[in-house]
Amino acid sequence: MADAMEQLYQQVILDHAREKHGYGLEQGAAGESFQVNPTCGDEVRLRVHLADGTAAPVIERVSWEGLGCSISQASLSVLSDLVAGADVARADELTETFRALMSGRGQPLDADREELLGDAGAFVGVAKYPARIKCALLGWMALRDALAHALTAEPSTVAPDQEKS
């Protein structure tokens, strides 16, 4: 049974690494972050796009490009699916839950937190290998940094009549 679950988890990671959701940087981002994992060289540039017309900031989508192992690329792909349409508090909750999964040394989370993570729960096996944890967390740290930039950015100082030129 454990082998079947491990194979399922590996398949989720491989599928997301091959077919990357949210891949390709898009214009009009509210915030951006570039992160590098110094231990292996994986890197990512992630942009967060916020929805217009919401009372509280809501992540419309993230776009990203990166180079690295299948774990880092799959983690970014899964992250893209999970945070699309989430408000900032929910995105923070997802980030902290994923961090908890990575610090669990391969032990699954409780059912509620597993359900919250969806496909990201497939990374439970990654937490058995300390060298790979930073690969899985790279995109999540980029998301947190990009959100910080988006939420603290100065309003545009360009006067409306100057934007047309």
Computed over alpha carbons, the radius of gyration is: 17 Å
Indicate the percent of residues in helices.
40-55%
Number of strands: 3
Which strand order spans the largest sheet, edge to edge or round the barrel? Answer: 1-2-3
Strand content: 5-15%
Mean pLDDT: 89
Main sheet record: 3 strands, antiparallel
- List the helices and strands in order: HEEEHHHHH
Shape: globular
- Uncertain residue segments: none
Tally of contiguous helical segments: 6
Query: How far from one another are the termini?
Result: 64 Å
Secondary structure class reads alpha+beta
Secondary structure elements and pairings:
Blueprint: H1 2-18, E1 31-36, E2 43-50, E3 59-67, H2 70-83, H3 88-102, H4 111-117, H5 130-152, H6 160-163
Antiparallel strand pairs: 1-2, 2-3
Commentary on this structure:
This protein is an alpha+beta fold. Helix content is 48%, strand content 14%. It is built from 6 helices and 3 strands. The protein has a 3-stranded antiparallel β-sheet with strand order 1-2-3, covered by helices on one side. A hairpin with a 6-residue loop joins strand 1 and strand 2. Helix 1 (2-18) crosses helix 2 (70-83) and helix 2 (70-83) packs parallel to helix 5. It is globular. The mean pLDDT is 89.
Give a quick precis of the structure.
This protein is α+β, with helices and mostly antiparallel strands and 165 residues long. It has helices at 2-18, 70-83, 88-102, 111-117, 130-152, 160-163; strands at residues 31-36, 43-50, 59-67.
Keyphrases for this structure?
48% helix, single chain, 3 strands, 6 helices, alpha+beta, 165 residues
